[in-house]
Amino acid sequence: MGRVAYDFSGEAVLVTGASRGIGRAVARAFALAGAEVAVLSSGEGIVTAAREIAEETGRPVRALVCDITDSAAVRDAFATLGRIDVLVNNAGLEEITPLLEDGDEVEARFRRITDINTHGTFLVTRHAVPRMRAGGRIILTASIWSRVAVAEFAAYVGSKHANLGFTRVAAKELGPRGIRVNAVCPGWVRTEAAMRSLAEMSRRTGRSEGDLLAEITAAQVLPGLLEPDDLAAPYLFLASEGARDMTGQALMLDRGEVMA
């Protein structure tokens, strides 16, 4: 996380999709910085994650089990919360959705991905904003695939493009309320979802995962695969006073793979 120290003591932070990967790393970083952290996910694994983050940081972490595609469930979950100073919209689903795949399953996957990544993000933000005051911050996890495209990932790429558009719309709409909205666009990160996609790409192309990963990292200016903890500091920055004049922006965190 580098040498910059952040202090979020007394601030309430909610991180969605925090049972693993980037969301968990971000939640842990905010807890270490003194924030009152709540984490949300649709599976019971979020309870374990909250307990482990609390043990690692020495800070209380609250777990909320909620399907963000269900408006009533989101409303009920948020009814248990008080003020929200920082919302991290990190929940998302990444799976392959080839246009030419036979059968109905791919259509079901497409709907589920877009429902979580776009509709869910809208619902969470919609229910969070009434609990935010001037000075509130919202950070979305988008992707470098919100700026470029890759074959056979229509739902994920399309939803991440939508996330970037949503970031800009929300920044304009919420700016008069004093709420800033920005996005982080990670490149390839060693997460369960990314490695699952890599394995599927290997299966479909007949190429080894090692060869595909070497090709991916070769497209970066800086070598090596990102780890979830590498992503935490930019979220803290966007939530800090250092970014008080930034809104509607997208930070590319991809070791130079896509240059804006």
From TrEMBL:
Gene3D superfamilies named in the record: NAD(P)-binding Rossmann-like Domain
Q: Which residues form a coiled coil?
A: none
Task: Provide the alphabetized UniProt keywords.
Answer: Oxidoreductase
Q: Which InterPro entries match?
A: NAD(P)-bd_dom_sf, SDR_fam
The answer to whether keyword Oxidoreductase applies is yes
Q: Which family does it belong to?
A: Belongs to the short-chain dehydrogenases/reductases (SDR) family.
Return the protein name.
Answer: SDR family oxidoreductase
Species of the source: Albidovulum sediminis
